[in-house]
Design brief:
alpha/beta; Nucleotidyltransferase, domain 5; 5 strands; 44% helix
Length: 140
């Protein structure tokens, strides 16, 4: 039984999601202000300890044609930074349209734009993590 941490990296905010102990269901956690790599790494390390995380799942943006652009390079750079101090497995996963899907779901429940901005990153991280969990369901 392992918990995973889902991450939707952004230059302003980093959305987070947490799996249940069985590794089958993702839930939005919170977001981190992306102020400095040291601050983010410290916060992630604390979450890893607190929730006994076994691995990280990070959204890797792709263009609709499947190619990678500048945003993907920022995520790769972020992965490189956190690998220096976090020794857990890190799995990048295609995150195409997760922010749009999260925004649509959240606006459908009546959130205004200010409320939406505060929740969309963690909701995107939840979608990213759930996608990973659905593909990696352990066989009984």
């Amino acid at each position: 039984m392992s918990r995973f941490l889902g991450i939707d990296y952004g230059t302003v905010r980093i959305g987070l999601a947490l799996s249940d102990p069985t590794g089958t269901l993702a839930s939005p956690l919170t977001f981190l202000e992306n102020q400095s790599s040291q601050q983010v790494t410290t916060a992630l390390s604390e979450l890893i300890q607190t929730h006994q995380i076994a691995g990280l799942v990070i959204g890797l943006p792709r263009n609709m044609d499947g190619t990678y652009g500048p945003s993907a390079q920022k995520v790769r750079d972020f992965i490189g930074q956190i690998q220096k101090s976090i020794s857990l497995p890190i799995t990048p996963i295609d995150e195409r349209l997760t922010t749009a899907q999260a925004s649509k779901q959240l606006s459908g429940i009546g959130l205004n734009q200010k409320q939406l901005r505060k929740k969309v990153d963690s909701s995107s991280a939840c979608l990213i993590l759930q996608q990973y969990l659905d593909r990696n369901i352990p066989l009984l």
